[in-house]
């Protein structure tokens, strides 16, 4: 194990390059989460549409994504799709992560939507609101609030999963750590340093999710 | 007596799978009438009420609302529902919206009324149901009786011609029933056309113009409260009244 002063010295020396890598990790994560929410919402709505074909499409999507490793999905997008048209590595990684997260998020949102009492839907309808309007104004806000704890979980997972972008040579945190580590024959120090950065990011993310939860909890009794 | 037919039901039938819950229902509700649907659980009264708002689809027969026969497949049910307000047993207030927002939501989003106007109207309605001080409170902070009065105000905000009540006091603590019934009585006195599914025999006797007694998916007997409670014609009705100890 490296001594603490050695670890601290390297941490300070490398903070420029790691901060840059952290920014890329953050970009990958935020883009994949935002896209993932959109994808997740679409497939959650397909799943509850009561239209067999659409439900099947949603089922197949979730099955394919959950049934294959994320690294395989990233490679397929990066090597496979890039052969057909040029997909920059950032977008290959972001898209793979977004499609991956989307499947899990769709299941989280579906569960949350279905957990809202059906009386809420009837109340909206009885006031002359259309299905879409009731969904948008009455059901989804309540569902989203219930989905936040598992969503927060999923966000943290996707942050850590973004490390797999290292394998398509994106200079995000994990790639920088392993490269510097092996160049300097000092893997352990750099792995501990990168762990610190991930912990920082997770702390930040947890803070943000908690704030949103608090903000949405105003209506609690 | 008013003679404008607000609701007319002809030969209405409805089944849930093998369960035939409404059998050849015929009924007319005239303007400003208060009709109380009574009967034991499972008699079909709530299903009948929900058919009037098309939350349940009839199997066959016809439902005519204010002179127009409604075809749920082709008609815009949202337009019809704007005219037919509904109050539920479990209130179904929107928990993520304040009392005021609960009331203004549909007028703004459905009718396109501007926000200021909707708020003024909502405050008047809150005053009417005695809750003007609760406008910024979330439903979770209200008692059951207060929730139900907000739900009534919410339905009234759409300015319906007909109000449906589905066991509005059944989920309430006994001491909170009175305030809701008082609100409903006020509404009846203003001339609102009301169809009320209820177990409150006192309310039915005092406020209803007509009592409709249902059993096993059929209308067994109908009459004025005086006829129904004091001179029931059918044996089944007498049994029911004896059982409810209000003969």
Topology:
The complex is a heterodimer of chains A (221) and B (247).
Chain A lengths: L3 H10 L1 H33 L4 H16 L2 H15 L4 H27 L2 H9 L4 H31 L11 H11 L3 H30 L5
Helix pairs in contact in A: 1-9, 2-3, 2-5, 2-8, 3-5, 4-5, 5-7, 6-7, 7-9, 8-9
Chain B lengths: L4 E12 L2 E12 L3 E5 L6 H8 L7 E6 L2 E2 L7 H7 E4 L11 H11 L5 H14 L15 H13 L5 E5 L7 H16 L3 E5 L3 H7 L2 E6 L2 E6 L1 H6 L4 H9 L4
Parallel strand pairs in B: 3-8, 3-9, 6-7, 7-8
Antiparallel strand pairs in B: 1-2, 1-4, 4-5, 9-10
Tell me what the structure shows.
- The complex is a heterodimer of chains A (221) and B (247).
- Chain A has a single domain (4-216), classed as MetI-like (MetI-like fold).
- Chain A is 82% helix and 0% strand.
- Chain A has nine helices and no strands.
- Chain A is flat, with a radius of gyration of 21 Å.
- The model of chain A has no long low-confidence stretch (mean pLDDT 92).
- In chain B, a hairpin with a 2-residue loop joins strand 9 and strand 10.
- Chain B has 247 residues and is an alpha/beta fold.
- The mean pLDDT of chain B is 93.
- Chain A binds chain B through residues 117, 119-120, 122-130, 133, 137-138, 141-142, 145, 216, 218-221, and chain B through 53, 55, 78-79, 81-82, 84-86, 88, 90, 92-98, 105-106, 109-111, 138-141, 154-155, 158.
């Amino acid at each position: 194990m490296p001594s603490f002063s050695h670890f601290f010295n390297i941490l300070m020396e490398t903070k420029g390059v790691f901060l840059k890598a952290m920014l890329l990790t953050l970009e990958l994560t935020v883009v994949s989460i935002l896209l993932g929410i959109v994808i997740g919402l679409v497939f959650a709505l397909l799943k509850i549409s009561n239209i067999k074909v659409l439900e099947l499409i949603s089922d197949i999507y979730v099955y394919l994504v959950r049934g294959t490793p994320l690294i395989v999905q990233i490679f397929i997008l990066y090597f496979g799709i890039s052969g057909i048209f040029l997909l920059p590595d950032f977008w290959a990684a972001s898209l793979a992560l977004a499609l991956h997260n989307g499947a899990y998020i769709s299941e989280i949102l579906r569960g949350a939507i279905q957990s809202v009492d059906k009386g809420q839907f009837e109340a909206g309808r009885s006031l002359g609101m259309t299905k879409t309007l009731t969904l948008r104004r009455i059901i989804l806000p309540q569902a989203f609030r219930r989905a936040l704890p598992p969503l927060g979980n999923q966000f943290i997972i996707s942050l850590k999963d973004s490390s797999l972008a290292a394998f398509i040579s994106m200079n995000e945190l994990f790639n920088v750590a392993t490269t510097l580590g092996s160049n300097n024959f000092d893997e352990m120090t750099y792995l501990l340093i990168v762990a610190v950065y991930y912990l920082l990011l997770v702390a930040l993310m947890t803070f943000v999710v908690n704030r949103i939860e608090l903000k949405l909890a105003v209506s609690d009794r | 007596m008013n003679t404008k037919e607000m609701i007319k039901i002809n030969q209405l039938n409805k089944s849930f799978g093998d369960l035939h819950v409404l059998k050849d229902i015929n009924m007319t509700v005239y303007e400003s009438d208060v009709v109380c649907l009574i009967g034991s659980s499972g008699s079909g009264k709530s299903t009948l009420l929900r058919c009037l708002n098309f939350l349940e689809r009839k199997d066959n027969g016809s439902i005519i609302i204010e002179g127009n026969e409604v075809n749920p497949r082709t008609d815009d049910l949202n337009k019809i529902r704007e005219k037919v307000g509904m109050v539920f047993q479990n209130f179904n207030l929107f928990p993520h919206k304040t009392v005021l927002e609960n009331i203004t939501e549909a007028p703004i989003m459905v009718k396109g009324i501007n926000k200021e106007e909707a708020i003024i109207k909502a405050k008047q309605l809150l005053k009417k149901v005695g809750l003007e001080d609760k406008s910024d409170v979330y439903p979770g902070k209200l008692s059951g009786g207060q929730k139900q009065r907000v739900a009534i105000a919410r339905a009234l905000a759409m300015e319906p011609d007909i109000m449906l009540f589905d066991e509005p006091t059944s989920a309430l603590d006994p001491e909170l029933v009175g305030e809701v019934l008082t609100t409903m009585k006020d509404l009846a006195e203003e001339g609102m056309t009301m169809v009320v599914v209820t177990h409150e025999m006192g309310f039915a006797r005092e406020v209803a113009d007509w009592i409709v007694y249902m059993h096993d998916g059929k209308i067994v007997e109908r009459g004025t409260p005086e006829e129904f409670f004091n001179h029931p014609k059918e044996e089944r009705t007498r049994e029911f009244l004896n059982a409810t100890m209000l003969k």
